[in-house]
Design brief:
Blueprint lengths: L1 E3 L2 H13 L4 E6 L5 H13 L2 E6 L9 H6 L4 H10 L4 E3 L3 H4 L18 H4 L3 H16 L3 E5 L3 H13 L5 E5 L19 H6 L1 H15 L5 H14 L3 E10 L13 E9 L2 E9 L8
Parallel strand pairs: 1-4, 2-3, 2-5, 3-4, 5-6
Antiparallel strand pairs: 7-8, 8-9
Helix pairs in contact: 1-7, 7-8, 10-11
Bound molecules: adenosine monophosphate (AMP).
Adenosine monophosphate binds next to helix 2 and strand 5.
Length: 287
């Protein structure tokens, strides 16, 4: 497995793979790899011949320096995980290589970034769109694999690839969960045992709403209320939002007469968690 740390070295690696006729697949991550990331790597093998995992804790997308500073960075473990998963190259640039003095160009997403997470995390999606564009520029992928865990991010990246003619196939992977339902996240290790136990209320609340949807409820306000009540009744949870939105536009809807997503964000102690569930007929529901 090759480990590359500069955009130039990464691009040269990818150009060699392309010249050999291989399809290149990239899995962008911030490291602290868990089974959610592994599911992305597995999907990458189905869509590409050569797999690149990028590991970069992107300062541009953090709106709280404490969150950036405390973000886990177990790089040696991560390299071991990638090797075992049959990854061909890890691209782990330094912040200095990514944002050299004089850096000033950013990618500004549109309306999709103003909703849900947008008001809570000013500048976050601009940071994401910028770094994903840079990672695509360095890795030159045919396909890129993203998790539905970060549903809004996935939607924004798809839009960006279309709008900017980036020509990268975007592959979406369902949320991987712990046995008790908690969506896997690199931030889960920062939960105290008490908050870790309390955090399961998020997936339980989404599941309860999804069950009502499956039983025929199509009033978005009623489904939202089910989830809100459960989360607010749970211990330790400080709820930020529960929204039912159109799966493509992320615009809130009142009646679920098309593909929709129920999304939530809440704090447990100092840790902010997000989760979501598709509200769609069983044949199209993926999470
Ligand atoms: P992160 O390292 O948290 O920035 O995540 C990197 C990629 O892994 C993103 O596309 C995430 O959506 C995806 N991901 C993170 N956690 C999960 C999960 N539990 N299930 C599926 N995908 C995930």
């Amino acid at each position: 497995m090759d480990v590359l740390t500069t955009p130039a070295d990464m691009r040269a690696w990818s150009e060699r793979a392309r010249a050999a006729g291989d399809r290149v697949g990239v899995v962008p991550t911030m490291g602290a790899l868990h089974r959610g990331h592994l599911a992305l790597i597995e999907h990458a093998h189905e869509h590409a011949d050569r797999i690149v995992v990028t590991i970069f804790v992107n300062p541009l997308q953090f709106n709280e320096s404490a969150d950036f500073d405390s973000y886990p960075r177990p790089i040696d473990d991560d390299l071991g995980v990638c090797r075992a998963a049959g990854v061909d190259a890890v691209y782990a640039p330094t912040a200095a290589a990514m944002y050299a003095p004089g850096f000033q160009t950013r990618v500004v997403p549109g309306d999709l970034a103003e909703r849900l997470e947008g008001p809570m995390r000013p500048g976050h999606f601009e940071g994401v769109a910028t770094v994903v564009t840079k990672l695509f520029g360095a890795t030159r992928p045919h396909a890129a694999i993203f998790g539905q865990k970060d549903y809004q991010q996935l939607t924004i990246v798809r839009r960006m690839v279309t709008d900017l003619d980036l020509g990268v196939e975007i592959v979406a992977v369902p949320i991987v969960r712990e046995a008790d339902g908690l969506a896997m996240s690199s931030r889960n290790v920062r939960l105290t045992p008490e908050h870790r136990a309390a955090a399961t209320v998020l997936s339980k609340a989404l599941h309860a709403a999804r069950e009502r949807y499956d039983a025929g409820e199509r009033d978005a306000r009623a489904l939202r209320r089910t989830a809100v009540d459960m989360i607010e009744d749970g211990a330790h949870a400080e709820l930020e939002y529960v929204e039912v939105v159109d799966a493509d536009t992320l615009v809130p809807i009142e009646r679920i007469d098309r593909d929709a997503v129920l999304l939530t964000a809440a704090w447990f102690g100092g840790v902010r968690l997000i989760d979501n569930v598709r509200l769609a007929p069983p044949s199209t529901a993926e999470t």
